[in-house]
Design brief:
The protein is mainly alpha-helical and 229 residues long. The chain has two domains: 12-82, Orthogonal Bundle (Arc Repressor Mutant, subunit A); 87-228, Up-down Bundle (Four Helix Bundle (Hemerythrin (Met), subunit A)), CATH 1.20.120. It has helices at 13-34, 45-52, 56-68, 87-106, 113-131, 135-151, 156-173, 179-198, 202-228; strands at 42-43, 72-75, 79-82. The longest helix is centred in the last third of the chain and has 27 residues, at 202-228. It is globular.
């Protein structure tokens, strides 16, 4: 039996502050990923502190967490800004994505049903959103699909890495002038990938995934270069 003195330890002030900062970071992360705080937006300590009802110290800790996730940057003497991805960032994100997602596809043959079901569910989610013309929701479903592919590897570390990568990738999606033009072609390609996995053709699925990711990377980089002209 655990001694009574250890069964109900109250959280310390530091622990409570960290917990509050994590909740604030989660709220800001959701806004960034949803487009409410687009790349380049300055995050005002005064305005956000008043809106969220937290101290500047709590906000600074939340910002530090988001800096660690590569979602915001601190610019000396200017403040904190939602990160704007450079082309080399996109290239690196896709390089790591390919490694993690193909690892999942290679592990699909031995993956349990509980890991395979989210792949099919994400495809159906994207198709419903496309039929409704909700292209932002299609983008979310696409990220769910790719996270589910990587999750087939059954690795918590891969899952955590994908969560961070896909949050960063949202920043790149905001660079696309037409969400429909970007996401629409990949709805059918997600269905094709899921079908290959379901049929056990894992070699073709891996080859298709590699081509797919390369095509998506080229589309984003092409758009970024056009914007810079």
């Amino acid at each position: 039996m655990i001694p009574a003195s250890r069964t109900a330890t109250a959280p310390t002030g530091d622990a409570m502050a960290r917990s509050t900062a994590q909740r604030v970071a989660a709220a800001l992360r959701e806004r960034i990923e949803g487009g409410g705080l687009p790349p380049g937006t300055q995050l005002s300590e005064e305005a956000l502190g008043r809106e969220l009802g937290v101290s500047r110290n709590t906000l600074r800790e939340a910002f530090r967490l988001l800096v660690h996730e590569s979602l915001v940057v601190h610019v000396l003497n200017r403040g904190v800004f939602v990160r704007v991805l450079a082309p080399e960032d996109v290239t690196d994100i896709y390089r790591v994505r390919e490694a993690l997602e193909t690892a999942g596809v290679r592990a699909a043959a031995g993956a349990p049903a509980a890991l395979l079901e989210p792949v099919a569910a994400a495809v159906a989610e994207a198709e419903r959103a496309a039929a409704a013309g909700d292209w932002r929701a299609v983008g979310s479903a696409d990220l769910h699909f790719h996270r589910a592919l990587a999750a087939l590897a059954g690795s918590g570390r891969i899952d955590a890495a994908m969560d961070r990568l896909l949050a960063e990738l949202r920043l790149a999606f905001h660079e696309m002038p037409s969400p429909r033009r970007f996401h629409e072609p990949f709805v059918a390609r997600n269905r094709a990938l899921a079908t290959l996995l379901a049929s056990g053709d894992h070699g073709r699925a891996e080859a298709e995934l590699t081509t797919y990711l390369d095509d998506a990377r080229r589309l984003i980089l092409g758009t970024m270069r056009e914007a810079d002209r």
